[in-house]
Each structure stands twice: as structure tokens, then as C-alpha cells.
Amino acid sequence: MSGKKTVGIGLVGAGFMGRCHANAFRSVGGLFDLPVAPALEILADATEQSARRAAAELGFNRGTGDWRLLVADPAVDIVAVTAPNALHEPIVLEALAHGKAVYCEKPLSTTAASALRMTEAAEAAGALTVVGFNFLRNPMIRLAREIIDAGEIGEVASFRGRHAENYMADPNVPHSFRTDPAGGGALADIGSHVISMARHLLGPIDGVSAESRTIHSSRPVSPGSDKRAPVEVDDVTHALVRFGNGATGTLEANWAATGRTMDLSFEIAGTRGAIAFSQERMNELLVWTPGRDGRTGFTRIESGPAHPPYGRFCPAPGHHLGFNDLKVIEVAELLAAFAQGSKGYPDFREAYEVQRIVDAMQRSAKNGLWTGL
Amino acid sequence: MSGKKTVGIGLVGAGFMGRCHANAFRSVGGLFDLPVAPALEILADATEQSARRAAAELGFNRGTGDWRLLVADPAVDIVAVTAPNALHEPIVLEALAHGKAVYCEKPLSTTAASALRMTEAAEAAGALTVVGFNFLRNPMIRLAREIIDAGEIGEVASFRGRHAENYMADPNVPHSFRTDPAGGGALADIGSHVISMARHLLGPIDGVSAESRTIHSSRPVSPGSDKRAPVEVDDVTHALVRFGNGATGTLEANWAATGRTMDLSFEIAGTRGAIAFSQERMNELLVWTPGRDGRTGFTRIESGPAHPPYGRFCPAPGHHLGFNDLKVIEVAELLAAFAQGSKGYPDFREAYEVQRIVDAMQRSAKNGLWTGL
Amino acid sequence: MSGKKTVGIGLVGAGFMGRCHANAFRSVGGLFDLPVAPALEILADATEQSARRAAAELGFNRGTGDWRLLVADPAVDIVAVTAPNALHEPIVLEALAHGKAVYCEKPLSTTAASALRMTEAAEAAGALTVVGFNFLRNPMIRLAREIIDAGEIGEVASFRGRHAENYMADPNVPHSFRTDPAGGGALADIGSHVISMARHLLGPIDGVSAESRTIHSSRPVSPGSDKRAPVEVDDVTHALVRFGNGATGTLEANWAATGRTMDLSFEIAGTRGAIAFSQERMNELLVWTPGRDGRTGFTRIESGPAHPPYGRFCPAPGHHLGFNDLKVIEVAELLAAFAQGSKGYPDFREAYEVQRIVDAMQRSAKNGLWTGL
Amino acid sequence: MSGKKTVGIGLVGAGFMGRCHANAFRSVGGLFDLPVAPALEILADATEQSARRAAAELGFNRGTGDWRLLVADPAVDIVAVTAPNALHEPIVLEALAHGKAVYCEKPLSTTAASALRMTEAAEAAGALTVVGFNFLRNPMIRLAREIIDAGEIGEVASFRGRHAENYMADPNVPHSFRTDPAGGGALADIGSHVISMARHLLGPIDGVSAESRTIHSSRPVSPGSDKRAPVEVDDVTHALVRFGNGATGTLEANWAATGRTMDLSFEIAGTRGAIAFSQERMNELLVWTPGRDGRTGFTRIESGPAHPPYGRFCPAPGHHLGFNDLKVIEVAELLAAFAQGSKGYPDFREAYEVQRIVDAMQRSAKNGLWTGL
Ligand SMILES: NC(=O)C1=CN([C@@H]2O[C@H](COP(=O)(O)OP(=O)(O)OC[C@H]3O[C@@H](n4cnc5c(N)ncnc54)[C@H](O)[C@@H]3O)[C@@H](O)[C@H]2O)C=CC1
Ligand SMILES: NC(=O)C1=CN([C@@H]2O[C@H](COP(=O)(O)OP(=O)(O)OC[C@H]3O[C@@H](n4cnc5c(N)ncnc54)[C@H](O)[C@@H]3O)[C@@H](O)[C@H]2O)C=CC1
Ligand SMILES: NC(=O)C1=CN([C@@H]2O[C@H](COP(=O)(O)OP(=O)(O)OC[C@H]3O[C@@H](n4cnc5c(N)ncnc54)[C@H](O)[C@@H]3O)[C@@H](O)[C@H]2O)C=CC1
Ligand SMILES: NC(=O)C1=CN([C@@H]2O[C@H](COP(=O)(O)OP(=O)(O)OC[C@H]3O[C@@H](n4cnc5c(N)ncnc54)[C@H](O)[C@@H]3O)[C@@H](O)[C@H]2O)C=CC1
Question: Per the database record, which ranges form the GFO/IDH/MocA-like oxidoreductase domain (chains A, B, C, D) (predicted)?
């Protein structure tokens, strides 16, 4: 219909994130003015059957139970990886070997060592890579970054961030790849989001001191099972952090935070102003800057067309964005980078840096020492 | 790809709402499990050129500058109308004459008399009709309705609602179809939203007493023009309302509400509980119900999979919906009704009832009297 | 101890407000730098016994069961009236006859006619009068007034106010002076607060159209009684209002507002800015004024020393004021006016104007017509 | 007037807190039903002149420039200490030597060693002691404690607290006792508040790991001076904490928190529920407990008569308390303990425990190690 160059998409995984990726690839063309159009070529899932069903539902031309076929398929230009974390490395390495661009869900892998292998392979291949830290795509986060970069809040002095949800608060939530000792735990799963946010806004982290805790010592081995197995990963991690620019602060990853469903939040105090945000109210940014005595306070800025790329979704303010829209923005930037041959962001190198911090926190939580990076 | 029966979509208008409809039709298939799949057949816009460009951008097979061709086209099953209000009646009547189902933006028309003609034509044709009161589709509004219907807040005693935005607050915003004396004004434009909400939640309105005011007496005749013309419609209308169930309250429509971008909000007091909502925080519903002394308060419920059809967008709570998602829900319900041959909601009859209230308020604002319905 | 001239205080009534007045008179001297010091001379209550007990508890020298003795006592300079509304007129008239200054709780009386008699008597006597509309004393309200008066939000276009509480929401709350057909009802009781607020901030009201409703048709005749008697006053009143300056809006008085304990709130839209406030968060004022595109929003100003007379209570911001502090401010202004021989505010004339509006709304609610003032 | 036994009060210091204490002693008798009545005997300040003036203003019988006279005076039963921190120990030890009860502002002293000396002296003397951690007196905090103690949120798993203000955010705020290397710094000054809160709600803290930072390296030596001297204390301290009950968390003390005036706040996650609070909205407690699917959320409980001793201030809900009211509650509990001969809370022992934690954090911040307690 559009006569645009098409880009073949191969999607691995059809769960929570797989569906979200599929939706983004379907929507993006009608919202963003892109030089290329995604073509939903192949979907790979755990089994042939589930892959076929999902492909039909989500609008892919073909389904396969074998991701190896997908990453090797000539119709596929970009491989989107939404399989469990432990599969990221094998899938990605093989996709890179076939010369594909790779769009991988966070965390990049289960260990920093693995993430580094993936990063080096991608850099050697000169491949476009993007990692799914979708919360960075929020126009309100873009605004926060602009305010900081412009020096409007002075020098950043303190960062207090967390990612707190309650999806593992119930001790009867069963084991899954999320509790796998290899790469699981609250810190790896959602701590990676708030670490990426901290880096995105403040830059490098130099040192960490962390404290981890397993609140529920056992969980059912699988959904509905009476058998329980011990939990070896953290439910909650609190960490002190030192940034390269001198700022200090704390980060928390907590998947047993009763009452919270998406408190990816932070407060940044600069020497002349402050910024506060929570993903629970993702269309609002609270900003404090100096002003007339008795007239200052946090200003609640609501997202609108003045905050790109909000205008792509709606020409009027007040019509808020939702979570899925963040993924659409991510995919738009991925496709633009693909079309232009430019670098992706956050790329594997950036995701590896996040992973190094996760690893450093895990080591610190074990040995009780500050850990440099 | 899916083998589903397709439903041909003809979209009239490619502005703010036209793009929103197009996006919804593109997305809905991957999110909802529908028996039919929409096929984006024709897009009609003001000119041939703009229609062709928009068709390409939004993924329609064809574009036309003449909506008469669209409504007559055999490939079109559903005509979606997002043209300016004054065009709704001619387009809809002709679409009905061709046996089409009609999905029309709100307000249904510029006067109650016109809306009644459209309603009667649709009923005579036995056509499926749906009107774009998208805010009713919010899972949080569905929850509010369930709470009221189950009697959880007792008998509803009072409703205090408004739709307040600031898009006309600046006296230099020019004239447009929104300020057309035939069917324009804040009350018709956004008052219709809060009236439909009030009816959706509390049922029929029996009487109104209204007060309208034009804050800015003139506006530029067109964008960028130095010439100004008088404004003949209301910038703000406040009204007293009496509901059929005995409840009383107020409604406000205000498009000059400085500081507000989407305060479609209400507070409902029942004899045993209360509900409060604002579209500014569309993923939250505040509910008060009796409890242990000293432990009660408004509970801030966040939307999640427990609130259908949220789960269609995301299997986990905390990942909020955005405005465009409401349109996707609307389109899903439209297509389901089309596939099942069932009635749409809100249909023309319902939209006509809304329009009668708009009209009654306009009359009351002129003569200063309570007006029955 | 201080050598300051003392002012003899006679307090009539030792209930909710009586105790609040007593506390204010005790505290004020240590907080405000006043030229006079209040001396707590006599307290009158319904019976000799309760008056004596209350006098001892609240620090008055003497107690009496006969307010006639109090208003005639030469040691008394200021008569503070916190008895039920129906007693305001007789007490006040006699106090004025004895040349006293009068500090009377709101509403001034049970009817506008009565309030006018009191006002004329006070003006004839040249007496200092102050009426207890304590919510006007809030430093945040003073700020709101300054912002409006300075034209910072442009011309005021719309006022949306209410005073909503839940203290009569339960149909088993018994009758009291508050439900007395002579001067009772939600509108008289708390509507008077929001009317005084509206006048304080926007000036005269020219016309009203009101709708009243009795939600609970009967109540126990007295606490604990099984016998019920019909309710003849309003539980909730909604009104349209037109201000002298051209602004329009709504006012609500609701004592059956489930979930609300003190929603004396308003939103004011001016042509260039907006102000929002709720007594539920009495230390915050939300202000919107124009600014850089994409950077505006409501600013949450917290009360502090920059907002007089906050500094009298605390030299540092963040240490919020409470309700009783508002009464201390009221008493400080009363005593300062007494010492300087200046006029009080809001005086009887102002309270009479409020009462006229209450009366006009009551008439409008009966006859369904707009009522001029 | 009341015939009650009087208790002689000697107040040292007439600054911010001195005035607040004086107000509380003046007000308390009319609000609380106490067996004793405070008599404001002597006020000591830095100079004879300032003491005399303050005594007159605040209602004390006498003023003195020598606190030694005050603590020795037979008319004084309770010595209230609101002098700068470094003076706490000498004043308190001498007051104890004279057999007085002591009511001392926080922090108890400048070092843990000093606080221990004071504690042991008080215990040896069998003296009543109370320390001014007034934030614990909030009815909402009492409610939080009850909810925790009753197990309503299950086992407490995580505590995230801070005390953040902005009073030192400006590098031109001069040196004062608050920046004295002996006992100064954000951690000692306001960190003590959030530490006392954490202990009050969760019990003992076993270990800490802290990170301190001086944001502004120099400040004027005195108000208005051009001369600057280096700052040797922390502007912000972040700490990891381990509680005796197994919970983990973070604490922050920050007096350079731009935008914040009183964010003494915490969020507590238990295994079955959660509590959140900020002193910025001191009349609200947010509580999450399990409930019907899709109906849970944080409930905003507003303070009212159901939350003792709120009812002492007002018989109706919605009439919020202010900061000064917390001090009145503190003084009421002090006087009640004095009259009954019972122990005070928080007493010196408790304040010493707080101080030990401050000290441990300071050591940890220096050596970078976890520090046990
Ligand atoms: N960016 C974000 O906000 C989020 C990112 N994620 C990330 O997305 C990834 C997937 O998580 P979810 O979608 O929540 O998990 P999920 O369990 O819902 O989905 C995983 C999918 O992978 C498929 N799969 C398993 N083995 C496979 C194989 N051998 N070949 C092909 N497919 C296979 C499963 O059948 C399933 O469809 C994880 O890396 C996770 O960390 C998850 C949720 C949110
Ligand atoms: N449901 C909602 O929340 C909203 C509903 N609306 C409604 O949607 C309708 C359109 O409003 P907007 O999209 O905001 O206006 P718009 O001005 O952005 O778009 C109107 C479109 O109609 C086209 N048009 C004009 N004359 C035409 C003709 N003769 N044939 C075909 N197309 C023609 C224009 O070229 C333009 O593309 C109105 O009825 C409005 O009330 C608008 C905004 C929000
Ligand atoms: N400014 C404000 O925010 C408020 C004002 N009010 C006003 O204060 C007044 C009193 O209300 P509440 O204190 O709530 O009532 P209340 O019922 O608590 O107290 C009334 C007091 O008047 C006494 N009284 C009755 N008859 C008397 C008599 N013949 N002589 C002397 N005392 C007599 C009663 O014994 C009782 O102590 C009313 O006018 C009410 O509208 C009440 C609450 C809040
Ligand atoms: N509980 C709370 O929320 C707060 C507690 N504080 C504590 O209260 C204490 C005092 O702090 P502020 O009132 O803010 O200080 P401030 O500087 O306002 O007042 C200190 C007072 O002590 C007096 N003073 C100094 N030397 C003296 C001497 N030799 N003899 C007698 N008086 C002397 C000064 O003249 C001044 O009146 C500190 O320990 C501080 O930590 C302060 C603020 C809030």
C-alpha cells in the first residue's frame, strides 16, 4: 500500500512482551512517519503449535517452534527477542552470525559476562542493537533529561530511585525464569530498569554497596503445584550508589512491594532544582525550579504535544499515553536507526553497563563491601 | 494471514480523530480475539490529495476526496465518520441508505432535530450504530458502573461532573467548526462527553437549568488571520441537573479552563459510598465505602487485568492504558457487535438523548428557566 | 506578667466552637505580637453546672448558666458567641446594647432578616463585629486573594466551589439545631462557608439558581432515640451563580457527601491562569500561570513564612498549620482591630450579605427561578 | 483558676523550638484533661535582655540570661531544653543534679558518648525524661504503629524512609550550630527524626552502611558575612539499614533537598500490606491491605476523632492538625507522665539509641564498611 521499503521482522517469544512487540510493529507505521515499513514475517515460540497460533493472532506470516529457523531466514532483517533471559545469548549470537539487527528485551542476559560476549559479538558484526528499556522512551523522561542536560536544576547532587512492584509478594507465586538462580531475582528483573534510568539521566555509576533479601524462602515449583522449592534469588535489593559526576543516592529493586504495581520512580535533587517522577503516573513530571519567594513548588507538567514524540500519538494535550505506546516509540526509533544505518540506543554496550552494575550489586550484597565499577 | 472474515472499513476524515480511528483499526486485531478482521479499504478526506496521502500513511487501500464514493462502495461494510460535526448528518444518512453500519464521532450532530433524523433513519434501516464516546470505554469507568449497579455505594444522591480543557482559553485561537453557531460551543463539543458519562453511570436526566458564557467575544476568522469575528457560542456552561432516579447535581463544560487539559471528572456521592474520577488520571478510580472506624478513606484503585478489557493490552497491572487504547476498545466492541449482529453501544438513540440534553441546556441558558426532558 | 492592657473576653457556648475559641484566646498572646492581652473572664453555657466545669477546663475565671449576666458584665469587653444559631440574635442584640464588641460564629443568624437586624444594631452602636468564617484566615487563601487582586490569573471567568462533608450522611444522625427548619440545613450550615469564600475571592454575587434536596427524609428526634421525625431542610444544595464581575460558576453545599470530611474546595479559572484549593490539604495552593511551552502545570505551593501570618506559628516552612491555627489568626485580627479601634472583617454586614445569598438560594430552590440579589 | 496541682516549667532557649514549647505549655491545659497544670516559671536565653523580652512575650513569670539559675530554681519542676545541641549535656546534667525532670530537644546530644552520659545520669537520678521527637506524636503515626503491631500488614519486610528538607540547599546559608563539626550535619539534625521514626515503627536497627556527602564545600561564617569557611559536615547521607526483625531498607537525611520542605516520609512493605506517609501531608496515612481482586489500592485515611488524641483538638474529622499540635501532644504526655510518676517516651535511653545509629552511620560513611550496633 505505501510503497515504502519493508523491513522483515522475526519475533522470538509470544508471551507478555512478545505480544507487546507485535502490537508496536503493527501500530508504528500509522503513527510515525518512517522511511521503512515493518513486515511481520516469522514468529518463533516454544512449540510449533503455539507459534502458529500466535502468528495468526498477531498478524505474522509464519510461525515456527524453532527460533534457529527464524534467525537464519533471509526474509528477516531484525530479530526481536522476547524469550526468557537465559535464551537471549544463544538466540542473539546466532542472529548476529546471520547478519541480523537485534532488538532484545532487557535484561540483556543473565550475567555480565554473557552480556559482554553478546556486546562484543554485536560490535564485531557492526550490527544495529537495541535493548527494551522502554521506560526511557517516555516523553516525560525525555523532558527530565533535557532539563538536567540544560543545567536547569544545577548540578545533580542526589538520586533516589526504585522499581517496586508486587508481582512476587505472594509466596505462592511459583518459580519461573524470573527466580532462576542464573540471572533471576528482583534486581536483575526490574532493578535493571531503574539502573538504566539512573544512567540515562545522570550518567555512569562508579560504585555500589548493596543489601539483598529473600523474603519468601520457598515457592511452588510450578503453577498450581503443591511442591515447593527454595528461592535462591533476591526479592528486594537496596543499594547505595555513587555516580561519576559526584552525585550519591539509593536504588531499590523490589518485586514484593505490597501495594505497588509500577513504582518505577525517582527524585533527583540538583543544586538549583529538583525533578520527581513515578511510572504510576507516567504522564506527569514534577519539576521544582527557583522562583519568586512564596510562589515556588513542584509543578506538575502533563505530557502533551510539546513533549516529542507525544504528538505522534495525538495532536492535543491531555490525551495521555499508555505503556504500550512506549514500546511503539522504541520500535519507531529502532526502525529509524535501521533505515538510516545509525546506532541504536540503548544498545548492547549500554545494556552491558547496566548488567555490570547488577552484577556488582549482587557481589556487594554477598560480601558486604562497596564495589567499584 | 488469519483466515478470518474481513470487514471493510471506510473512514471519512483524516484529522485528529481520523488518525485515532485508523490506529485503532490497525491495532485491534492483535489485541482482541475477534471473529472478524477489519480491512482498511477507503479513506475520504476534504481533498483528493490529502485523502491519498493520508490513505498511504494510515494504511488504507484507497483514498478519495469524495465521501459519496466511499459510502457507496461495496467493499465498505462500516463507515467511520470523523469529519466536522455539520457533515455528520449528510454522510451518515447516505451511508445508511447504502445499508452500511455507521460508526460516528460525537457529537452525533449539530442539533437534536438532526440527531433524531439520523437516529430514526438508522433504526428504520436496522443498522448497527456506534458513537465515539470513547471515555465510556475506560476499564475504570466500567468498574465505576459495576460498583453503582451492584448498589455498593447505596442510592446515588449527587453527581458533580465536568469536562474542562483549555484549548480555547487563548482568545487568539481562531474560529473553526467548533465555534460554528450551528452545533458548536463548549457544551456541544465536550459537554456532550460529560453528559454521556452522567447518563452512562446514573441513567436518564429529567431536567436542567443552565448558564452559558462567552468569555472571549471575538476570535481570528482563521489560523494566522488578523481579522476577527464575533463568537456566538459558549466558552463555558454550568448546569444544574435532576436525574430520573432522584439524584441532583451539576455539569460543567469549559474549553477555556486555564490549567486543565482533560479534566473530564466527576464525584458521585451515594448514600453508602462515593466514587471520584478524573480523566487526567485515567488509570485510577477513587472509591470510598464504609469500613472500620478510623480506617476508611478513598481507595485509589489502579487499572489492571482485574478490570476488563485491560488484560487485552497487558497481562500485568501497573502498565497503564492511554487515550488511544480507549478507541481500540471502542473499535473492538464495534467489530464484535458487527460480527454478532447485535446492537452497538452507545448507539444513535443514546447519542440523540445526549444531544437533547445539550439542546435543553442551550434553551435554558437563553431563557433562564428549568427545562424538562 | 506582660503589663499589656487586657481585654475581657466573655464566651457564650462551650461546645465544638466554644472550645476552639477558648484555645485561640489562650494561645494567641504567645504567637502574635498584640498590643492587648485577652483575659478569659466569663464563660456561659446552657446550664450553670456545665458552664462552671467548662470555665475551669478552659481557663475562664467564672462560669454562668445565664448568658444575660455575661453580656452585661463590666469585665467583659468582647462577647464571643458560639451558641446554636437561633440564639445568635438575642445574645448579640443584648451584647450590643451593653456596648460590647461582638465576635459571632457563622452563620450570623437563621434568616437574612434576622441578620439584617443584627447588622443594623451593630452599625448603630458603632460596635466592632467579626464573624467566624475562619477558613478565610488561611495564609493560602490570603495568597489566592493576592494573586487574583494582582491580576496574575487575568480576569476571573469561572468559579467552581463546594463545601462537602459527610457528617449527616448517615440517616441515623439525629436532629439538632442544624436540622431546625428555622435556619438549619446544609446550605446555611456549610454553604455559608463557601459563599463567604466566593465573595472573599471574587466579590459580589448578583444572581443564583439553586436546587436543594433532602436525601434522608427522617431522622431520630434526639441522640439514641427510636422516634424519628421528618427532615425539612436540605442535605445537599447545588447552585448556579453569577458574579458582579461577570464570572459564572457553581456552588455546592453537601453534608451528606460520603467520603468527604472537609472538601471546602474551589477551582478558579481566569483568562490567564487558574487557582485550585481544597481545605482537605489546607497547606497547599495549586496555581497555574502561563510559562514556557511544555513546562507549565499546576504548581503546588506549600504554606510557609512567605505567607503571612504563617511565620507567627513557625519560622520555617514545611511545618504546616492546622484548623485551630486558623481560629488563632481570626482572634489575633479581632484583638488587633479592638486595640486599634478599626473595623473587623468579615463583619456583620459581610455576614449579612452571605446570609442574603443563602436566603436567595433557598427561595430559588423552592420556586425554580433565578433570583437576583 | 482550676485548683489543679501546678508543675513549674523552666524553659531554656527562646528560638524556633523555645517558642513552640512555650505555645504548647500554654495551650495544653485547655485541650487535654490533665491532672496537673503547667506554670510557666522561668525562661533562660542567651542574654538577660533577650530572656526578659521572650519571657514577657511567651508568658513566663521570669527571664534569665543564666540557665544555671533556672535549673537550680525550686519553682522549676521540669526543665525544657531548646538550646543548641552542644549545650544539651551541660544543662541536662545540672538539671538532673538538681532533681529536675528533663524535657530535651532532639538530638539528645552531639555524640553518642555524650548522650550515654546523659542517659546514665538520668537513670541514676530516676528522673523523668522525654526527648522532642515530636513527629512520633502524630495520630497518623500512632495508627501506623497499631496497624503494624496488630500484624495487619504481615511481617514487615522493607522500610524506605527519609527526612528531606531544603533549608541548607542554598550555599549562602551561613554556618550555625547545625554545621558545627561537633554534632552537626544533616544526619544528626534531621536524620535523627527518621531514625527515631524507623525504630518507633519497626524496632531495633542492627547494622548500617552509609554514604555521606558535603554538597556545598564552604558557607559564610555568619549571617551576612562575606567570609566563608569550609563545611565539615554532611549535607546528605544515604544509608542501608538492617532491622532486628529481619527487615531491610534505606534511610536518607538531606537538608539540601531542593523543592522539599518537610519530606519526613516512609513506605513500609509488609508481607501482607503496606503503609506510606509523608509529613508533607501529615493528616493522611496511606494504607494498603489485601481485598477483593480489582478493588484494592492505597486507602488515604484522613486523621479524625477515631485517631487519638485528635479528638482533644476537635470533635469532628476534617479539621486537620498542624505541626504545633504535635508539640502540644508531646507536652500532654510529658505532663501526664510527670503527674503519674511513670516513664516518659521517647526517653533519654531511646534517644541515645538513635544517637548510636547516627554515630554508626557517621563511622560507616568514613570507613565504607557495614557497622553493627
Ligand atoms: N521491557 C519490559 O518492560 C519488560 C520486559 N520483559 C522481558 O521480556 C522477556 C520475556 O518476558 P515475558 O514476556 O514476561 O515472559 P513470558 O513468559 O510471558 O513469555 C516468554 C515467551 O517466550 C517463549 N519461549 C520460551 N522458550 C522459547 C524458545 N525456546 N523459543 C521461542 N520462544 C520461547 C514462551 O513460550 C513465551 O511465549 C524477558 O527477558 C523479560 O525480562 C518482560 C516484561 C516487561
Ligand atoms: N471522541 C473524542 O474524544 C473526540 C471526538 N472528536 C470529534 O471528531 C470529529 C472530528 O474532529 P477532529 O478530528 O478533531 O477534527 P479535525 O479538523 O482534526 O479533522 C477533521 C477532518 O475532516 C476532514 N474533512 C473536512 N471536510 C471533509 C469532507 N467534506 N469530506 C471528508 N473529509 C472532510 C478534514 O480534512 C479533516 O481531516 C468531530 O465530530 C469531533 O467532535 C474530536 C476530538 C476528540
Ligand atoms: N466556624 C466554623 O468552622 C464552625 C462554626 N460553627 C458554628 O458555631 C456555633 C456552635 O456550633 P457547635 O459548637 O458546633 O455546637 P455545639 O452543640 O457543639 O455547642 C453549642 C454550645 O452552646 C451551648 N448552649 C446551648 N444553649 C445555650 C444557652 N442558652 N446559653 C449558653 N450556651 C448555650 C451548648 O451547651 C453548647 O456548649 C454554630 O453557630 C455553628 O454554626 C460550628 C462548627 C464549625
Ligand atoms: N523537634 C523538632 O522538630 C525540632 C527540634 N529542634 C531542636 O531544637 C534545638 C534548638 O533549635 P532551634 O530552636 O531551631 O534553634 P534557635 O537557634 O532558633 O534557638 C536556640 C535558642 O537557644 C538560645 N541559647 C543559645 N545559647 C544559650 C544559652 N547559653 N543559654 C540559654 N539559651 C541559649 C538562643 O538564644 C536561641 O533562643 C536544637 O537542639 C534543635 O535540634 C529544632 C527545630 C525543630
Answer: 142-275
